[in-house]
Design a protein that fits this description.
Layout (H helix, E strand, L loop, with lengths): L1 H52 L7 E9 L10 E4 L9 E3 L5 E6 L4 E6 L6 E5 L10 E4 L2 E3 L3
Parallel strand pairs: 1-7, 1-8
Antiparallel strand pairs: 1-4, 2-3, 2-5, 5-6
Length: 149
């Protein structure tokens, strides 16, 4: 009788130990994956910062939308959209199509875009995200209204 009690206790202890080992293994794997993600994210931020220093930043941030007239609401065809030349290089540019739709691939950090079209006053708009919000790509919808001259 006493032998059965101790055998049962040993079995219970082994089951409990297996469950604890499984729980701690899952916690360890999740913690390990989180640390890997943190290293990847930090490395991406450092790589981006280094590319800004030597002015070789690849265009990984998509800005898209439509350019319209503020007076009529009609699309402005062939408008020019680009990084503000007074900002840090590299500078990327794009043109709107005949319906005023555009898509510009640029850098992810906050900066100014300059928008111009024949017969309209040039405009600037701020785009981008601070370094801890991009992963390292992103996109932003930016509809633009231009004032006629």
């Amino acid at each position: 009788m006493a032998q059965e009690f101790w055998d049962e206790e040993i079995r219970d202890d082994r089951d409990l130990a297996r469950k604890q080992i499984l729980r701690w293994s899952v916690v360890f794997v999740l913690l390990f994956l989180f640390v890997l993600f943190a290293f990847w994210w930090a490395g991406s931020a450092i790589h981006f910062g280094a590319s800004r220093v030597n002015e070789s930043t690849p265009a990984t941030y998509r800005v898209f939308g439509t350019v319209r007239s503020a007076a009529t609401g009609q699309p402005v065809p062939w408008a020019e959209i680009g990084d503000d030349p007074s900002g840090r290089p590299p500078h990327y540019r794009a043109s709107a199509d005949r319906h005023g739709a555009y898509e510009l691939m640029t850098i992810a950090e906050p900066h100014q875009l300059r928008i111009s079209a024949f017969g309209f006053k040039p405009a600037t708009r701020r785009v981008g995200r601070v370094w801890y919000l991009w992963m390292p790509r992103g996109e932003e919808l930016l509809d633009i209204l231009l004032e006629p001259e």
